[in-house]
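Here we describe the complex-level prediction in full. Unlike the single-chain runs in Section 2.1, the three entities below were treated as one system.
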Amino acid sequence: MTGRGVVGANIVDPKMGPCDSCYDKGETWKLSRTSSRAGKKRGKSKSSMAMEKVSARAGICDGLVLEEACHNKVEDGRHKLKEIDSSKLSSPQQHRSSLKADLEPTKCEIEILPIESNQVVSPSKETEQVDGLQLARAEMGEVREENERLKMLLERIMTDYKTLQMQFLHMVKQDHQKQQPAAAANSPAIAATSAQGPEESSLVSLSLGLDSGSSSSGKYEKEKENHLPAPRNEDYPHERLALSLDCKFDAANMSGISGVSNLPSSTSPELSSENHKGEESGEIWPPSKAHKTSRSGDDQVSQRNPPKKTRVCVRARCDAPTMNDGCQWRKYGQKTAKGNPCPRAYYRCTVAASCPVRKQIQRCADDMSILLTTYEGTHNHPLPVSATAMASTTSAAASMLLSGSSTSGSGHHPPEVASTANLQGLNFYHPDPSRSKQFYQLPYSLPVMSSPSNPTITLDLTSGAPVMSSTSSYAHNQLSSGANYYNSMARYNNSSTPSLNFTSSETIASQPTAWGNGLPSFTAAHHELFNKSNPQESQLLHHQLSHSQKTNFSNTNNPQESSIAAATKAITTDPNFQSALVAALKSIINGGGGGGGSGTVLTLGNYLVGGAGAGGDALEQKLRWNEGLTTSTGFLFGQKMAPQVNACGSSYLNKSSTPNSTSSHHQPASLMLLQSSNPIPLPISFHKQNGANAATSPVDNGDRNS
DNA sequence: CGATTTTGACCTGCGC
DNA sequence: GCGCAGGTCAAAATCG
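The structure predicted for the assembly as a whole is:
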């Protein structure tokens, strides 16, 4: 659910496909004319491997159209491998011909064959060829693994697609049912025994005014992914509600209902807000902007950029003027907002000229060390790797916002009940009750939504701040004020924690309307992490945790403790899990760090591991597991840290300061992997240490803009 | 010199 | 209708 846009950006990169493809093709043809046979074969196998990858990716990008082709490739490769193995390859010539048949595209084969037929094989060359064969085999193995991974990805996408399809069909069915009001309204028994089956019927009857199909399907999807047994019917009320995570679907449903568009489901805040806004779908941006853009053509804009209303506010401790989220931003305005001495800066994304994403940055009035970054919109371009974490996070948060609004349906919960949640280990809440108008308020039924102009959801990333997502916390915080806000959060954290992280099984008891039993919640959380790593590692992690949770969950009276114990056990005792997690972390660091050169420190709770200059290997070496570590969920985000404690020393806070003066103090990045446990959160965070080249790292160079 | 930031003016929505 | 506040624009200033 999270980071759909991000994933899409990575996979459906319009630049990547063609470029790679062309390059690979060129390499293939060039290598086909070289004299070194082994090299030729290696080159060819690589190029063909790359071509296969490209074609497989293209299959994904085309929305599974080429799924069958990918399957065929995989099967074909397997078949050929078997042939190679079974033939025993009596001679080098046979080796070559077999490999050629396996590895080379037919085009290249035509060129090579004449050369081969005229060649006399010497003993030295023979060994060379054997080496080449071994290399080729290894490469084939890589190709096969890659194909397997792609296959898995395709399967997952197919699952999503099927789920979507089911939901769509269900919606259509519901529409039909609505058109027969007499039968539907007067005979609930009929509905309960409809062809949808007992599960879905129960879902319908238990619905809080929402389309049930989407959630149920989404639930099953999650169940599938978790390899969990199908839940019992009596669990469905919880699970039904827990499905608020599947906001994409709800959003899609809503869009269908409102007739806004036929766009596929998306987690994009714009789309969601569009759905919320209904007939206001033509509006893109705050009024003034919308008016101006409408002058240049409403239709164009509305098609290209859905309206942006949903906001995601990231609240993080950051002494630097801005939080590095990986994107490039250009400041276009600054305003002193009422009630906050610190001015608010307005940025727009400059990665793409037409990108509608904007953000606002402002210091928290109560705590100058806290930076409030409000994102609005979704990037319409491929994102830098370093930007995907934050993008996916905000997207997920926006999704949660929307899902909350959709699942609340005809809900009767007080606003504070719905206004706090925890997504992927993040804390969502209204940071300032006095300004609640601006912040996330769940509309209680779709048709009569009292949607604020800019519904905002806040992610509390203030490291060290307690997890606060409970109703009581918020209620209390509404009574609290100012600097005591977080203290009150800490105090009330223990009472009930309907958070989404997998430690919060207590949710069931304390707030059944929140997030269900925690297992799927944890899945949603750690998927974020897993998806950034090797899928196999992801699966391993996934399996380990799921299994541990399943095992311990039933044996403990306190589900929360059991979850914690399960995770702890999985983390601390299982070397596979550790290695997988290390690999995942390495993947994140290498792929998403974005800031070159500086060291990486892994923190588990208060436990520092790694050090300056620590790369992946160093991380792996130094990774140790803190006994106090109770959970590990998978949220990632980029954050800028600065050693200099100068809360308001940013250029936009102090005119006298210059970008140089601020950027030179930046630390390249901080990756926060969190999450926390109850009662005391133990964030797992990566801190890019202030290396000598920090100031010249790519991240730092971009900081000036962000 | 181009890109970016600053900053005052302007526009719009909303509450009274 | 008026004033306020949020948001944006665009010319000037600044930076690399």
